[in-house]
Amino acid sequence: MINCLIVDDEPVARTILRNYCSHLPEVHIVAECGHALEAKVILADQPIDLLFLDIHMPVLTGISFVNTLKNPPQVIFTTAYEEYAVTAFDLAACDYLLKPFSLERFIVAVDKAKEKLQGSQKRVAETNQLARQTNFFIKAAGKIYKVAYADCLYIEAQGNYSKVVTVGSTFLPKMTFSALLALLPDDLFIRVHRSFLINKSMINHIDGNRVYVQQKEIPIAETYRDSFLSKLGL
């Protein structure tokens, strides 16, 4: 469900938007109002995903209004003036509907907003997942150990085992290298060789085809070099 707020000083324009929204069951109109200051109060009080926002309004224009918002929702500008389009998109507007616009064009704009909202929700979920999961478990020498991502230096393949080297310990769990590879987040751990996975945050420096994780010298295989450097932003 997309919670939206209609902000337009023309009652007829609000009626058209309300009618268009009625064709889209996923769009829920939380409120509508005739000027930006009233919208600001509503935004402070209710969760709004999407603003249908006129530009020419009394007291404060739609553009100025968005500039006042610290964390604006998705915005679709609805206006009779095309000259503000560039400014609107500079404000990361979702779309810019030039009045009068058709229901078809309105649906296209809402679909864009929906995609952006879904992308944003996915990123939040991934961030939350990462925040929740900060360690992994391994079984070695008859015990189960919790290893914090932040403490793990590197992992080395050892046949049917894997050597997990942390800041304070070394473990030899009976886990294949590929099984550990699947367990660890690829934005934190990077494979640099068929037998080595390193913690990106522990890299000391890179010298030619060698990467130094603290004092440990680890080879960078030609096969993995480009993806390794790419993940470092190089």
UniProtKB/TrEMBL annotation:
Organism for this UniProt entry: Spirosoma endbachense
PANTHER family membership: STAGE 0 SPORULATION PROTEIN A HOMOLOG, TRANSCRIPTIONAL REGULATOR-RELATED
Protein name, as recorded: Response regulator
Gene3D superfamilies named among the record's database cross-references: 3.40.50.2300, LytTr DNA-binding domain (2.40.50.1020)
The HTH LytTR-type domain, residue ranges: 136-234
Keywords (A to Z) from UniProt: Phosphoprotein
Domain Response regulatory, chain residue ranges per copy: 3-114
Pfam families: LytTR, Response_reg
Modified residues annotated as 4-aspartylphosphate in this record: 54
SMART domains from the UniProt entry: LytTR (SM00850), REC (SM00448)
InterPro entries: CheY-like_superfamily, LytR-like, LytTR_DNA-bd_dom, Sig_transdc_resp-reg_receiver
